[in-house]
Amino acid sequence: MNQFQYYTPTKVIFGKGTEENMGALVQEYGCKKVLVHYGGGSVKRSGLLDRIYQSLDVAGIAYVSLGKVVPNPHLSLVYEGIELCKREGVDFILAVGGGSVIDSAKAIGYGVTNEGDVWDFYEKKRNASACLPVGVILTIAAAGSEMSDSSVITNENGWVKRGYSSNYCRPKFAIMNPELTMTLPQYQTMSGCVDIMMHTMERYLNHADNMELTDGISEHLLRTVMKNAKILLNDPENYDARAEVMWAGSLSHNGLTGCGTDGGDWASHQLEHELGGMFDVAHGAGLAAIWGSWARYVVDAGAERFAQFAVNVMGVKAAGDGMQTALLGIEAMEDFYRFIHMPVSMKELGIEPTEEQMKELARKCSFWGRRTIGCVKVLEEEDMYQIYKKACN
Hints:
Blueprint: E1 11-14, H1 22-27, E2 33-38, H2 42-45, H3 48-59, E3 62-66, H4 75-88, E4 92-97, H5 99-113, H6 119-122, E5 134-138, E6 150-155, E7 160-165, E8 173-176, H7 186-204, H8 212-234, H9 239-252, H10 267-279, H11 283-298, H12 303-312, H13 322-339, H14 346-349, H15 355-365, H16 381-391
Parallel strand pairs: 1-8, 2-3, 2-4, 4-5, 5-8
Antiparallel strand pairs: 6-7
Helix pairs in contact: 4-5, 7-8, 7-9, 7-11, 8-9, 10-11, 10-15, 11-13, 11-16, 12-13, 15-16
């Protein structure tokens, strides 16, 4: 096993009705004015936003609001939020939503507390030295951003999607009421389940001499999400299934499933980020569409690990050599994606990139030839192009 540090400072308040005492929770941090950051109209239609305002009023905390966060959150709204926070004297950000809202809130927090252009952090030109405190009321189980150190933003200038990680942005608290996810469309729920699984699989599929305990946690988490995703297909208001998936989302991306590993591969995420940036697709669905092509491209460099995944997670019976078992595991994973109505190709995702677009995707993913991605097999720009090409079939 590798040496590791595990840091999870986020306070979790989990269960029914937990959002009702949100004002008192924010009050604990001594803030004077809150930015309530959210996405579309669902938080308004459900009455959640009004309940949040009422709770803040009862606690005597002033607030301003900024909505309009979209999937693959935009840098332009981050800039708007930074300006609003500075003008209004905001000292705490409350993100109400899923990963996109939380990521946008983190970026705003960076921009308020650091000089210069916040996009510099996402371009890896410099590092942040602070972030406004962020709290979360989670309404979508998917990204795990409610407990992670990560934030991903899309710059509309060139439609480039980039991530930045720092412990400064880890949320102070995360309120998780599974009931708040019950009205999500099936596609969004299943896309979220894929995202949760991929956060675990990215860490699990590696070249490290892994810890048996970490492997066991990862394998059980994956099986749990698969089991409960199937339940939610037919019973979307099943509280227990929603709770299992919501908690799995947090554990998948708070560092737990990476303890003792080499950090994982993450090539599938990097490849999908460019799809999200160019075509604005749902992140989990994009991951499902690209994963099988990536897996078959790199499996020869990690057949033993893929075979372990096939047997322990997908329930595949070992067949022949490790490579045969590994390939059966990849097929089983794609069968699961199909079962929950997720795409396994870009065509099924609803996009058919041209040759030039695939080359552009690879150029952007390689940072114009300046970086490689992945650890199972290190991928250069040409490899990335070939994976995109395979994913079109």
